[in-house]
Amino acid sequence: WAKNINRHFSKKDIHMATKCIKNAQYHQSKKCNSLRFALRLHLTPVRMAKIKNSGDSRCWRGCGERGTLLHCWWDCRLVQPLWKSVWRFLRKLDIVLPEDPAIPLLGIYPEDVPTGKKDTCSTMFIAALFIIARSWKKPRCPSTEEWIQKMWYIYTMEYYSAIKKNEFMKFLAKWMDLESIILSEVTQSQRNSHNMYSLISGY
Predict the structure, then answer these.
(1) Measured between alpha carbons, how far is 196 from 203 in angstroms, rounded to an integer?
(2) Quick one: 156 exposed, middle or buried, by C-beta within 10 A (0-12, 13-18, 19+)?
(3) Closest by CA position to 34, among listed 156, 153, 133
(4) Rounded-to-integer distance, Cα 116 and Cα 138, Å
(5) DSSP H helical ranges for the chain
(6) Confidence band (pLDDT; 50, 70, 90) for 34?
(7) Which of 44, 51, 167, 196 has the fewest C-beta atoms lying within 10 Å of its C-beta?
(8) pLDDT (tens digit, 9 = 90+) per residue, 57-79?
(9) 3-state secondary structure 120-177
């Protein structure tokens, strides 16, 4: 990753990234268990070109750029609109983060970000990464709607887990503001179609 992002990581950065990857396996969504493998082992056009000795390392989404690890997860012009949506949500939550790929991809946050904010951000980033992975070889932009649906799935799983473990207040602290923003971004027909109703207020 240091080579792909073209930067030096301190021991503290490496520790933070390792902790983030390990924590992913404990995420409430079972599909998130493979996140720590997906980020490192998803085959890229550059890697496949070397394996097949083909010389064609262009991005599979059809943008025409070289499909490096960083490009596929972050730089691709068909992926960037999704990341713009993620940062738009962050601003609505009054969370100020630089648009740095090391934050969503490796979990390396600025030192002044509170732990509670990191929990919220991590959920948003995990959902975005899985939407990107799901459209890995498709010539289209991963949509904001898909990302919202993924977040809502995680939200629902965490809600029932919190009820079971008697940790509702912890769930509330993490999701109350994000839930309101998610519901404000979807139409009534989308709410009805995907059963997107508040589990906190019941509406």
Answers:
(1) 9
(2) middle
(3) 133
(4) 35
(5) 2-5, 11-24, 35-41, 45-52, 69-70, 80-92, 102-106, 115-134, 144-165, 168-185, 188-194
(6) very low
(7) 51
(8) 999 999 999 999 899 999 999 99
(9) HHHHHHHHHHHHHHHCCCCCCCCCHHHHHHHHHHHHHHHHHHHHHHCCHHHHHHHHHH
